[in-house]
Amino acid sequence: MSSKEQINMNALPSHIAIIMDGNGRWAKEKGRLRVFGHQNGVKAVRDTVEAAAELGIQHLTLYAFSTENWNRPKFEVSALMELLVATISKETKTLMENNIRLNAIGDLSQLPKSCYDELQVAMEKTKGNSRMTLHLALSYSARWELTNAAKLIATKVKDNLLAIEDINENVIADCLTTKGFPDPELLIRTSGEYRISNFLLWQIAYAELYFTDKLWPDFRSTDLYDAIVDFQNRERRFGMTSEQVSV
Ligand code: IPE
Ligand code: IPE
Ligand code: MG
Q1: Nearest-5° angle of CA 181, CA 231, CA 94?
Q2: pLDDT tens digits, 203-219
Q3: Which of 15, 147, 159, 237 is 20 to 30 A away from residue 54, measured at CA?
Q4: 184: which DSSP letter?
């Protein structure tokens, strides 16, 4: 039985997040420049987005560029930004055909104007789409997001719009870029690295983590199905005992 057939369609995670890693190593293995890996990563994105939407996943978040990635060589950063602009503009049509909404999270003010503008156009065009929301984490880091949330809350308290006693988990969640979206239940990281790299630290408090050695450009729908099947075989206890959650 293929992994797709093993998926329980009644127990799908509503939100899957992916740390797409390994583009550089994939290119290096082939004796090519790192940028070649990023270019080929686009195919994996296309395949994964299509597969997730087809299954009925409501939210897919892809970590495409971290705030720390700005420290990479200038040439690589520019190439990634150009690739992003070209891909977003090219793929908007497919997003429309597949009824997928595009959303971006992160410190978007840091993006080059062409990239920012292209994103705004695509988000505006796709905002009525309802089958799945594709969240692109761009110039994103969880520490940036949490620092920003602290500033927003402090300002509300200072302006007497919020009492300190009323600060709770919901208030904090509402100050994050993921406001209004469910937390990811499944977090996938490719390329055999076992770390989170500043991604969605608040939101993954209870996510199931899935690591694969596949390098991102080689990731395909079947890898997504494998991860979902693995997820569905886990017992999610949320601090309780096995007996409590299995009744
Ligand atoms: C992931 O692949 C893409 C981005 C972080 C933009 P990498 O570029 O990190 O590839 P490796 O990890 O160096 O192989
Ligand atoms: C994490 O990958 C960021 C993205 C996938 C966009 P990195 O390759 O930047 O992470 P580290 O540096 O290995 O932790
Ligand atoms: Mg990497």
Answers
A1: 55
A2: 999 999 999 999 999 99
A3: 237
A4: P
User: Rounded to an integer, what distance in angstroms lies between the CA atom of residue 245 and that of residue 240?
Assistant: 7
- Placement of tokens 């594709």 in the chain: 134
pTM of the model: 0.98
Ligand 1 centre and the CA of 26: distance in Å? 9
Question: What does the DSSP 8-state code read for residue 158?
Answer: H
Distances from the Cα of 131 to the Cα of 20, 85, 221, angstroms: 22, 23, 18
Identify the CA nearest to 215 among candidates 32, 35, 38: 38
Minimum-distance ligand to the CA of 195?
2
Is 21 known to be catalytic? yes
Give per-residue pLDDT as tens, 119-137: 999 999 999 999 999 999 9
